[in-house]
Amino acid sequence: MTDTANRQQRGRGRGGRRPRVILRDSAKKITKASILRLARRAGVARINAKVYDEVRAALRSYLEIIIRDAAIYCQHERRKTMKSRDVVHALKRQGNLMYGFEQ
Hints:
It comes from Heterodera trifolii. By secondary structure, this protein is mainly alpha-helical. The termini are far apart. Helix 3 (51-76) crosses helix 4. It contains 4 helices and no strands.
């Protein structure tokens, strides 16, 4: 075999079992600094420490609704890949227009 053929067969092999993905709470990745930046943009000077978890919970529920609607658009078109237009349509359905993504 040539060197390139050997290189392709090293490792897990062909069709090996993929590692299992561990799901974690991704809302914790929204840092305090990013929440504070959004609040500053809205004109808020100071934030109580208890507010950060409430903001994360509100963001999570909002994103669940948007992603659920976008997934319905994907299922309707018999696709498994969510496209940006699905998210734009889901936002439009909720009454939040997103500029710059017109079709």
